[in-house]
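Whether sequence alone determines local backbone shape is best considered at the level of individual chains. When preparing material for the folding task, we compiled for one chain both its residues and its backbone structure tokens. The sequence in question and its structure tokens are set out directly beneath this paragraph.
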Amino acid sequence: MMKSLGSLLSIFLLSMIISVSAQTYLITETCNASTYNKLCVSTLELGPQKFKLTPKGLSLVVINSVKAKATSIVKDIGSIIALIPLVEEPLSQCFEFYNEVVNDYIPKGVEALENDDPKTAIEIISKTAAGAYECEKILISTGEKFADLLRGWKGIGGSGKNVYRLLVIALEILSKLV
């Protein structure tokens, strides 16, 4: 009885070690090919484990991370506009864009992936990346222009930068599905 329990425990531990090693290998392999290696590794290592260790699953981890960051940016921009109406004009475009990212682009990209349509997912994520790049520039320039009013602004500009970079990582992973 004790021997079989010990054997089962050994098999369980061995399978856990192999699983963690496979996960680490896939993340390392995927992120070594990425333009933003460190961000890729940290995102995939911290991502939810509910996704399979496949390019599709890894893409979903990154895309969900984009949604979380975009949601945070929408809240931050909304708060800033409410406090400092002077920045409403330059920030309203990004506020609307990130709202669309959260409520339209990401859900459609995820749906395309879940329906095994990586080409459509790539088209959606590519358009989203182009918009994120433009908003990154707007967020940074607005932060510089209104630096006296926007203390702590660099955090939001940095978040915009990370959204764009995460979208690039998602595209790099998605390209393996086509």
